[in-house]
Structures are given as structure tokens and as C-alpha cells.
Amino acid sequence: MSQFFQIHPENPQARLIKQAVDIIKSGGVVVYPTDSSYALGCQMGDKNAIERVRRIRQLDDKHNFTLLCRDLSQLGLFAKVDTGAFRVLKAYTPGPYTFILNATREVPRLVLHPKRRTIGLRVPGHPIAQALLEQLGEPLMSVSLILPGEVEPMSDPYEMRQALEHQVDLIIDGGHGGVSASTVVNLSDGEAQVVRVGCGDPTPFAVEA
After folding, report:
1. For the residues of 192-206, what is the DSSP string, one character each?
2. From CA 116, how far away is CA 67, in angstroms rounded?
3. Of 184, 141, 157, 150, the residue nearest 51 (C-alpha)
4. Which terminus of the chain has a smaller tally of CB atoms within 10 A, N or C?
5. Mean pLDDT of the chain
6. For range 60-87, the mean pLDDT
7. What's the rounded Cα separation, in Å, for the pair 170 and 25?
8. What are phi and psi of 52, to 5 degrees?
9. What percent of the chain has a predicted confidence (pLDDT) above 90?
10. 203: burial class by Cβ within 10 Å (0-12, 13-18, 19+)?
């Protein structure tokens, strides 16, 4: 049976954030809000928690996981960022974008794309997500909360509770969420190309055919 925390979306309660991070550090899988939609998160090196996320979402080993980072300096530890990519990241973070980049050796192998050795990274603008990252002190392994057979993320925390209370350890209610996942931009080949259009404006980037 999962726990259910109601956390203020603009002024997150420090006590509840600390409890949420304690759950993550002890191997928990949590549902939390971002500036695009709600997401599933766990500690990035926790194999059992990551496998639970895979089962909930029914993901294969080719899915690009995302590391949610506190800021650009933290992101730079986990991705190879050249000058061109840095300009893009500086202009569009924090925000509802996920950027696919070539990973550094700091990224655990179990969250890498098995063939391309790439990783999705994003810096969220949501206060609850930022508070979690600040308390955690490292990136959060994350995927959008889109259940099997659905095309849009779940947005109602009470519906999440009904659907997932026996599959996750914590659901954070930060109010109704968005129904679009982040826009995904591939920067790993040296050119910015949109591979998924979500709630971030794709206009500045080329869209893959």
C-alpha cells in the first residue's frame, strides 16, 4: 500500500520532501509532478527499483530513461556537452524538455540505451521536483507516468492512487498535472532534432521525419 503526500506545488513542505527522499533512497518508486506531467521516479543506480518502473510502464531495454537533474552543472557530470549543446541547454532549461545526449561513465549502465550509450536528461522547472533533487543530491531516474495502452500521462493524483497504490511506494499529490509529456530533443549527433513533440515548444528545433 503506497503512501500519499499532499505537497504544496509552489512552497513544498520540507518535512514531506525529506520523507519522500528517504523513501527513494531506501529503494522506493515514487510518483511526482514535473513541469510537463507526472512521472515515475527512483534512485538512478537501484536495479530493483528500475525493474519495477519497467514493469509498471511495460518498457523494453531499448527505452531511453531520463535523469532529472537539479541544474546544468549537475547535468554536465552525466552527459558529454559540447559548445553547441551547451547553448541549447542554457536557453531551454529549466523547462519541459528532455535532451538526449551521449552519456559519461558516471551514468549507470542499466539506465543507458544499450546500443547508443545515450541518456535523456532534463532540468525541471517544477518546485516539487526541484525540492526533491535538492534534497536527494543526485539525479532522479525518471519516466513519464503513461500507463500501458494509454497515450497521455495520468493527471489526477487520486486516479493514480487507485491505479498504482499496490505498485509504487509513494504518490505525491501536487495538484492536477499536465497531459503532455516533455518534448524530447536529440542532441547526441551534433544537431538538435525533435524526436517527440510534447508540451515544450518544438519550433526552435528540426523535427525528425
Report:
1. -EEEE--SS--TTSE
2. 16
3. 141
4. C
5. 93
6. 91
7. 12
8. -65, -40
9. 87
10. exposed
Quick one: CA torsion of 161, 139, 64, 40, rounded to 10 degrees?
A: 0
Cβ distance 106 to 44 under 8 Å?
A: no
The C-alpha angle with vertex 78 and arms to 75 and 79, in degrees rounded to 5, equals 85
Q: Is 186 helix (H, G, I), strand (E, B) or coil?
A: strand
pLDDT tops 80 at residue 207: no
Report residue 190 as a C-alpha cell: 551534433
Strand order through the sheet with 66-68: 3-6, 170-173, 30-33, 38-43, 140-144, 66-68, 118-122, 97-102, 183-186, 193-196, 206-207
124 vs 131: CA distance, rounded Å:
10
Both ends of the chain: CA-CA distance in Å?
44
pTM of the model: 0.94
In degrees and rounded to multiples of 5, residue 159 shows phi and psi of -70, -35
Distance CA 40, CA 47 (A): 15
Nearest 5°: the CA angle 193, 196, 201 is 75
Q: Which three cell numbers stand for residue 82?
A: 559540447
Q: Are 38 and 171 in contact (CB under 8 A)?
A: no
Q: Which tens digits make up the pLDDT trace of 163-181? A: 999 999 999 999 999 999 9
The full set of domains in the chain, from first to last, is: 3-207 (3.90.870.10)
